[in-house]
Amino acid sequence: MKRKIIAYNLVLTDALEQLDDSFEVEIFDGINPKTDHAFLHALKDAEGIVGLALPVDKELLEKAPKLKIVSNNSTGYNNLSIEEMTQRGVMGTNTPGVLEDTTADAIFGILLAAARRIPELDHFVKSGNWKQHLTTAQYAVDVHHKTLGIIGMGKIGSAIAKRAHFGFDMNILYYNRTRNIEAEGKYNATYCDLEPLLKQSDFVCLMTPLTSETENLMGEQEFKLMKKSAIFVNGSRGKTVDEEALIAALNQKEIHAAALDVYRSEPLSPDHPLLQFPNVVTTPHIGSSTFETELKMANLAVENLLSGLLGQRPKNLINPDVLNR
Ligand code: DGY
């Protein structure tokens, strides 16, 4: 009998060609994993799952008694209940090391878009309203030589710091669980606490993973600490931000603008209040979504899956404790 694999929201399914005939793959896209009958049925025999943002919790694990590995096609793995998986001997993997530059480009891109009001002014031109010179109400704000506060100086945070330092002569502050000496040396980044970072930064860029410590990291108090002229950028996960508090801060003009790639609930509903603000730039969680990088990620995710299924240690194993059980 062939070994069953589930591919869940894996767009570039060509990557599955790495799997030989001893595997049978069932592909699921855009389904509700809690209720879809075919998916729930496939779980019973599945030894491996490869895909994007599947909530792997106790409930799912109970329905998948043969599961050996869940290979996330993303670097973030907040969708995996790692402790629960480790207890049951299920490996978890992710795809770091191939998407940092691409994601940093995108996040720096939305920062620039918000500061220079690019989407708003694009709409102004395309809607035929560019009939005379701009008014001061349409002027933007500079990015170069300003202060950028990065919350979460991991690999992507560092790649953003690199762009800010070498390309835009920005002054960089950062807040992280641990000091990032390399970023301090290379990009002249200064380590500081969250409060001074929020008070001093012209741009606050949130890049931290979502954990129990970072959930709602940006709330009412944090937005109040920011400069009224500051721009907030979120390239982490939606749940790191209290969206109600962000909306209130925008309404009360406690911050100047926001640039968001991630949301508490994705896809973002078309009537979401954040969409009413011309000074909020939105993109649909596209940090890593280029042809080149998505292909690298999908190949790496399938490579991790295959190693786990063949009894080898996957390159990007998140829960090595699973091997000591
Ligand atoms: C990641 O890799 O975590 C990206 O945000 C895509 O989910």
From TrEMBL:
GO terms for cellular component: cytosol. The keyword Transcription does not apply. GO terms for molecular function: glyoxylate reductase (NADPH) activity; hydroxypyruvate reductase [NAD(P)H] activity; NAD binding. InterPro entries: D-isomer_2-hydroxyacid_DH, D-isomer_2_OHA_DH_cat_dom, D-isomer_DH_CS1, D-isomer_DH_NAD-bd, NAD(P)-bd_dom_sf. The keyword Transport does not apply. Residues 11-319 form the D-isomer specific 2-hydroxyacid dehydrogenase catalytic domain. Residues 109-287 form the D-isomer specific 2-hydroxyacid dehydrogenase NAD-binding domain. Keywords: Oxidoreductase. Pfam families: 2-Hacid_dh, 2-Hacid_dh_C. Belongs to the D-isomer specific 2-hydroxyacid dehydrogenase family. This is NAD-binding D-isomer specific 2-hydroxyacid dehydrogenase protein.
